[in-house]
Each structure stands twice: as C-alpha cells, then as structure tokens.
Amino acid sequence: xxxxxxxxxxxxxxxxxxxxxxxxxxxxxxxxxxxxxxxxxxxxxxxxxxxxxxxxxxxxxxxxxxxxxxxxxxxxxxxxxxxxxxxxxxxxxxxxxxxxxxxxxxxxxxxxxxxxxxxxxxxxxxxxxxxxxxxxxxxxxxxxxxxxxxxxxxxxxxxxxxxxxxxxxxxxxxxxxxxxxxxxxxxxxxxxxxxxxxxxxxxxxxxxxxxxxxxxxxxxxxxxxxxxxxxxxxxxxxxxxxxxxxxxxxxxxxxxxxxxxxxxxxxxxxxxxxxxxxxxxxxxxxxxxxxxxxxxxxxxxxxxxxxxxxxxxxxxxxxxxxxxxxxxxxxxxxxxxxxxxxxxxxxxxxxxxxxxxxxxxxxxxxxxxxxxxxxxxxxxxxxxxxxxxxxxxxxxxxxxxxxxxxxxxxxxxxxxxxxxxxxxxxxxxxxxxxxxxxxxxxxxxxxxxxxxxxxxxxxxxxxxxxxxxxxxxxxxxxxxxxxxxxxxxxxxxxxxxxxxxxxxxxxxxxxxxxxxxxxxxxxxxxxxxxxxxxxxxxxxxxxxxxx
Length: 547
Prior knowledge:
Layout: E1 8-9, E2 12-13, H1 26-62, H2 74-89, H3 94-110, H4 119-138, H5 150-163, H6 165-170, H7 175-196, H8 199-204, H9 207-231, H10 236-246, H11 251-264, H12 272-298, H13 304-331, H14 340-361, H15 367-383, H16 387-411, H17 415-418, H18 420-444, H19 452-461, H20 467-472, H21 475-483, H22 486-521, E3 529-530, E4 536-537
Antiparallel strand pairs: 1-2, 3-4
Helix pairs in contact: 3-4, 4-5, 4-16, 5-16, 7-14, 7-15, 7-16, 9-10, 9-12, 9-18, 10-12, 10-22, 11-12, 11-22, 12-13, 12-15, 13-15, 14-15, 14-16, 18-19, 18-22, 19-22, 21-22
C-alpha cells in the first residue's frame, strides 16, 4: 500500500488509498460512503429483522436473546417496535391455549367424559400435571452433575393428585383405561429395549460384563423373594416377581450419567462407562424375562411342578411368537415403499401392543413382553443402520406415553388405603434387596482389574431404578384385577408399592451419587499435551476395557 501526502486545497483533503496512484476526494468520498452505507444498512436490517422475528417467536424454546444480533439505528428500532405491538397485545401463553383447545376438542366429541369425574378429563388432567411436574424437576440442576430425572416429577404429580382430597375427586379414571395405557407404554419401552440390544457388542462381551448383567439382578431377586416371603408374607412366586421387578437397573439414568462422565474423561482408561452402558441394557432383559416366568407361575392353577412348567411354556410361546413376528417385519413393508421408516415403526409399535394385550387376553400374561423384545431385536438385526431412525420414532412415542405411565403409577398409591405398616414392610424388603445388590456388584467386578474406588463406584452406579419398575410394576396388579381375587390384588398392590418406593428413592439418589462420586472415585484421563496455540489438549488414551 502507498501513502499519499495530505494536501490542503479548497476542494478538500486527499487521503491514503489502497492502490498506487488512486486518490479519493473528500467531498465525493463522503457522499459515496454515505450511499453505500445506507444501502448496506437497509439490507442488513431486512436480514436482522427477519431473524429477530424468528427469535421472538421461538425465543422461549431456544433461550436466545435478540440483542445478540446487533443494534439497529433509531428508525429501525422504532419500526420494529411498531410492528411488534400487535404481537404483544395478542400474546397468549401457548401451553394454556393448547391445553384449552385439546380439552375443547375432547369435550365436543365425548361431552360428559371430558367433564370433571370423566375418564378423558382425568387423563388430560393427569397428563398435563405430569408434564408440568417433569418440567419443574428438569429445572433443578446441580453443577457438575446430570439433571434430576423428569420421571421423578411425573411420578410425584400422580401421587399428589391421588392423595389430595379435592383433586382425587376430580380425577376419576376407569381401571381398564388405566391398565391399557400402562400396557401400551410397557409395549413401547420393551420394543425400545429390544432395538437397543447391539448384537456386535453382545458378541464382544467378556466375563465381567456377563457377571455384572446376571449376578446383581439374580442376587437381588432372590434376596427380595426371601425377604418378602418372611416380612410381607408373599407367596414364593409373588416374591420372585417382586424380586425381578426390583432387579432391573434404569438405563435412562445410568446411560446419561455414564456418557457425561465419559465426555469428561473419568474412568475411560479402564472402560468403566462402556461396561456399565452395555450391561445396563442386558440387565433389563434378564429382569423382564424372569418376571414373566414367575408371573405365569403365580396365576397358574395346579401343583408347583405344573406352575413351573406353565411358566416355561409362556417363555417358549413368547420367544417363538416373537421370532415369527420378527421374520414378518423383515420383509413387510418392502424396502421399495415410501415412508419406509415410519411404516416399520408402526408395525413394531402395533405388533408390540398387540402381543402384550392379546397375551393377557388368551391367558399367557408372561409371553407378550418377551415376544415384544424378540420381535424388535430381530427387526433391528434386519435393518442394521436404519434401525436408529426407527428408534427415534419409538422414542417420540415413548415421550407421549411416559407421562401417562409414571403419573398413573403414582396415582395408584394411596397413603390411606396402604397404611404405615405396609410402607415400613416394603421399605425393609427393598432395603435388604438393595444391600445384597450392592455387595454382589462389588464382588463380581473384583477380578476385573479395578481398584477399590472403581469397584465401589460400579456398585453405586447399579442403584438407580425407574423405567422398568414403572413398566412392569403394575402388571401383576392389573392381572390380579382380571381374576377378581381380593387376596391377589393385595399382593399386586404390595409389589406396586415397592416399585413406587424404589423409583421415588433410588432414581434421584442414584443420579446424585453417580454425579458426586464419579469425579472422586474414578481416575480422569490425562490431558497434558498442548496444541500449537498453547491450549491444553486431550491426549488420546488407549483404553484397556474389561469388555
């Protein structure tokens, strides 16, 4: 760049220019710059006002501040304020409008069912209360830890509605409606469990992961069966049903917590997050299968041998029917059809709900759940890379039925009808089984190359319970109601009470323990390398994973 000397003249001042020999006259230069700046300002305002309008509409969802897009000139700001006045005058909370419209639509179709005391009114009130409870719980965040599970707020919302006199009179839901909604939610979560099984990971599992999958679950189930038989006076089959309800860990909490620790580098050198993520999915399948076996035994009539045989028959029927339906969804719908992923998701959800509900109808209550897991697993084998898209659709369906499931579980618990003694017995049974689980998990990873702190963390990470307990905790009660036996209904209510307490206590406690103890008990991967700018950079560590 050449610099020209400043020369005073009557016409103005000459300025430096970027090109050799080029000179810009002061008077003409000001006018040209003013015109170009005005045109650029108009174009920029159009762009920024369009973005500002978008942010104003979706600001609550995105959490953005329109001020980050720069300042407008005074005229632009005045025009924008004038254009936004009608929007502010006509503004209405979107959630209130949506709820009012949904209720009005249901009322126009069902009339008295949508009024207080009707089924639709009760379901809508319960659903939106659960969503609100989940939102409130999701806002409670502690630094350095995963957020508290929203399902805790949904569960507590249903519990409050049932035990507050005014709301309990308003919300009246038919038992069959409640049971069918819970079974539909159960079908979706079982289908997700089947799709979530990774065959390649299952082939690579080593002994430590298999021990962690089967050992703590079976140990807790047996301990709960013995404790409930002598403490709560449950029959052995019902005791083992309770044990396998408690035996499942919550992947929703464990996986999220492990992924957060993994991104921070805690435990990655020994593959602890990977171990717990893989074992948590398989642990649920073991618990669901064991529950279905003893569910068939509990409702069979005859000797112990016949009851055991009946339970095995239900497992065989569930596995075979699931295999047949899995082969069906391999070929239908065909790959050349439009909206293929949506059609596959529809078949998985439809066949899963059909399997669970028809199994109860035909006297095989333990077959439907296993059938759902098998058919969805086989579908995932055939779809390979496209399986993820089907999982996303099922996750969306689960997001709709999740508030129903947890709020209906909470609404089943009545403090007045259960009593303090039953609560105490349920807490004692749950405490004994949970202690046995901690000891088993600690012992079964002793020969895997972990130190004392790492083994303690694995045991503590195996505490949270939530999704599976809500999904299968009410199945025994629903089946007992179909038999119209008050004694069996009492057993089923006891199982549901223990499942409710397990979610209420272990879900937030387990999430907090994982978040607090992870950075203190696990070793963090070293980050001693620096990049070209002097910033710390994570070093790639070759993991020696036990799996």
